[in-house]
Amino acid sequence: MSLKILHTSDWHLGKVFKETTFELLPIQKQIMDEIVDITRKENPDIVLIAGDIFDTYNPSFEAEKIFYETLSRLSEQNCFVFALAGNHDSPDKLQISKPLIAGKHSIFIKSTAFDESKDIEFENENFKLALENSFLKLHLKNEGTVIALKCLPYLSEVRLGLAGDEYLKKVNELLSIEPQFSCDYFLLTSHLSIAGAQQSGSERIFQIGGIEYIPIDFLPKSAHYIALGHLHRHQKLRNATYSGSIYPFDLAEIEHKKGVSVWENGKPDFIEFNKIPKIRKIEFDSLEDAVKNAPEDEAYYYVLIKNPHAYTTASIDALLKAYRNRLVNWQFYTPDVPEEISIPELHSLNEEEMFIEFYRAKLNKKPSQDILSLFLKTLEEVKNATN
């Protein structure tokens, strides 16, 4: 019994860089074309899209058009396509499209964790799909292979209506369920952060009083392959893989390899994109220096400015004009602060340490002693008011 999987995630279709005039959607469309080309060449049985399809709950018409056209083109490659909602996706919006797709294409969209409708049924000359005990049971007719697939969209405390230990207990329960029917392969796909994985850039999130990572022991060890989304760096943890985002959406992601993960009969692989325009990081002491020394080539740039104090609206306008549509993004920065961090074990941090990590994640620098003192004073006042 053989099985080949192509795994991708974190497309963030329609993402806009508010600080510049850079147009990302045409490049994202090129990447979609390349994913379809890779699928055609690799000929997988299944394509898994592990969340963050769009960048906002209300994507543009053009972003939605690209997504559904890509789904259709992928399904035409004799593979079954599964997509699920990430934290950037609107479950309701994805849910609306399901009746338009069901029964017509070898495509399945999972928008909520508890969408257990009984009418999940599809069959054509290549596949037979049904719901059995909260698993999708997929039969590959040509190979005679039976697959048990667990699809879990983004499991936030808000979406589950639970918090703290109750939230963790429920997530553990959902992730640990194993198929109760005979199958050749057990697969899991979800959109979440696993403790110990590397975060970097635009997906970096910390929640004071909340839970933003899941212990790796929650993942079922018996699964043959676990396809994850949410973290933008391609990486593997045990039997789980993050395919990574399709594009470097943040400065810290420039050096990351971007592509799709492929898994065939226990052998993992990664196919890197070769059509993404080159992006370069360039540093200047001031906005004025960045304008005067703007490169004249056709590469795309992330511009870093070391001096955050000397700038005007006119100098920012001059920066945008100098780089035209080649400026992906720009920002002020503190050179001695690392651009990449690991997910901290938040439960082991005290409130002061947690605030420092949160501040670093948001502003890319440590809080001053005055800010830290103000936070601790406010925290103490809140505690006194609630006691």
TrEMBL record:
The keyword Nucleus does not apply. One of its GO terms (molecular function) is DNA binding. SUPFAM superfamilies: Metallo-dependent phosphatases. Residues 3-233 form the Calcineurin-like phosphoesterase domain. InterPro entries: Calcineurin-like_PHP, DNA_Repair-Maintenance_Comp, Metallo-depent_PP-like, Mre11_N, SbcD. The keyword Oxidoreductase does not apply. One of its GO terms (biological process) is DNA recombination. Keywords: DNA recombination, DNA replication, Endonuclease, Exonuclease, Hydrolase, Nuclease. Heterodimer of SbcC and SbcD. Belongs to the SbcD family. SbcCD cleaves DNA hairpin structures. These structures can inhibit DNA replication and are intermediates in certain DNA recombination reactions. The complex acts as a 3'->5' double strand exonuclease that can open hairpins. It also has a 5' single-strand endonuclease activity. This is Nuclease SbcCD subunit D. It comes from Thermodesulfovibrio yellowstonii (strain ATCC 51303 / DSM 11347 / YP87). The gene is sbcD.
